[in-house]
């Protein structure tokens, strides 16, 4: 069933860094810390870690297994495990491809702002105030140009292929991400107010416990691992058969969760440093006031108040954000590109060119109708479509795909799996528990 001409990850470490890079995005570095700050800090962290284990990890194994079995794009991979339901498999695969492309269309706009903030922080050091104002101000031309710049960066990586593009750049960018995190955290911890944020993040207050916090943590765990948009299925299709899928999925989940945890170590103390410097962060009732503007207004204002060293820290901070955005965007673009290469028999370069161009056009339409479309596209894709597709993939893996075929696929990289605890729990768990949790995410988030 394997297609010999397809690219493959050259090493397990390369795959782990690429898959973790796909998962590590703005949801980890922006979304998770602000969710934690809004939902009790350490309490949210504990529940989130539980939900990664209880919901995200079992579903990640399912997506990777379907992808590696099919050794193809999501449409063909789903058809291979559901041969009697080709129309349904095609519908789920196409839906995943369309939704991930729409997610990339608004993600590229936000990532473009990061490009502007990164460049602006650098120019601030040399006093180019007019250029900084344009790069960091909100305007249609600026939003459009920076979105195109970010999309061209993404297209450059993806058109180089699996090994020379995705794996190569993920293997470079992810270690840089960790190094920059360490530098930033080391500095922020020396600032007044940081320990107050660290205490909120690491010392649980169970008075904040509620069903809403549990569902928020569940949704964050699901979205954090890029589930429900077929990105992990595509990456799984580039995995060698010798890979131990449960172990590899656990390593990806651990790296992704580790980045989210480290991001919390940076962002929450930084918020309290900003508060110490006079920036209003929480309302009188304790609610986070600035989750939407935290990255682009609150933290830059704090960096600016620190003088030259603060501007340097700002450059490092936006480098972290930009790397996280890029490692996610390349996995999003790879989904429709993989479909075009294999279903339309196109070259990778051609597929990347026209698909990237279409996504830029959609992004441009959103930019020109920002007030009406930006929030709407986010809501339709991430609140509605992504959980529904994730649910269908789970149902296909758990109920449609024959259990003996699943076992045979998993045994290729883990021959003794049948005797282990994982196989005694996972098949039933992914059939029954994961769909129930996904329905909760959809209806209550």
From TrEMBL:
Transmembrane parts of this sequence: 12-30, 42-66, 87-115, 144-162, 174-194, 214-238, 250-274, 312-339, 351-371, 383-401, 421-444
Say yes or no: keyword ATP-binding present.
no
For this UniProt record, give its keywords in alphabetical order, as a comma-separated list. Membrane, Transmembrane, Transmembrane helix, Transport
Superkingdom of origin organism = Bacteria
What is the annotated localization of this protein? Membrane
Give the membrane topology: Multi-pass membrane protein
Q: Which PROSITE patterns match?
A: NA_NEUROTRAN_SYMP_3
The name this protein carries in UniProt is Sodium-dependent transporter
What does the organism's lineage look like at the top? Bacteria, Pseudomonadati, Pseudomonadota, Gammaproteobacteria, Vibrionales
